[in-house]
Design goal:
alpha+beta; Aminopeptidase; four-stranded antiparallel beta sheet; three-stranded antiparallel beta sheet; 6 helices; globular; Acyl_CoA_acyltransferase; antibiotic resistance
Length: 179
């Protein structure tokens, strides 16, 4: 059973370990010192910013993280997407990782994404869609989105999460009627 709860400060050592995993660090180019994790994830954990960092549990065991936010709360992301795709301010964005290596490649990613999207329609009643940009090079991520029911709706250049990647991104979406 997949469930989640808001990430809390006691979870930071686990998150830090996940961010150091090669399969995560390749796509989540993130500083992994204890101070950096607290700095970057602390505001959401305390509810001091509009994004949600959700610790994903499988049968009660922490396995991953989902970040969820409204595009209207982060106008810089909305503005960067504008030349590629018109996105409603109420649309929701997701980012996700499976931190535990033993759970990668087993179909868990699409299950998590589907569950979060279903909850999003209740948690964000004004959201017309969930829109997720992903590096064209991150095949595992965009395949998970496709398996979760997302469609590729655009392609274009966006700032990569990891500077080793070029700017090419696919944009995937699912709307309320399809999710």
């Amino acid at each position: 059973m997949i469930s989640w709860r808001r990430l809390a400060e006691p979870d930071f050592p686990l998150l830090r370990r996940w961010l150091q995993q090669p399969h995560v660090s390749r796509w989540w180019n993130h500083e992994t010192s204890a101070e950096a994790v607290a700095r970057d994830f602390g505001p959401a954990a305390r509810g001091a910013e509009p994004a949600e960092d959700l610790l994903v549990l499988l049968d009660g065991e922490p396995v991953g993280l989902v970040q969820r936010c409204r595009y209207g709360d982060y106008p810089e992301h909305l503005a960067e997407l504008a030349p590629i795709l018109a996105v409603d301010v109420e649309a929701v964005s997701l980012d996700y990782l499976i931190g535990e290596p033993r759970w990668t490649g087993r179909g868990l990613g699409p299950r998590i994404i589907r569950a979060i999207v279903r909850a999003t329609w209740t948690d964000y009643p004004a959201a017309p869609s969930v829109v997720v940009p992903v590096s064209v090079h991150n095949r595992a991520s965009w395949r998970a989105l496709e398996k979760a029911g997302f469609a590729r709706v655009a392609e274009g250049e966006l700032t990569p999460d990891n500077p080793v990647d070029d700017r090419r991104h696919y944009v995937y979406a699912v709307d309320r009627s399809g999710g």
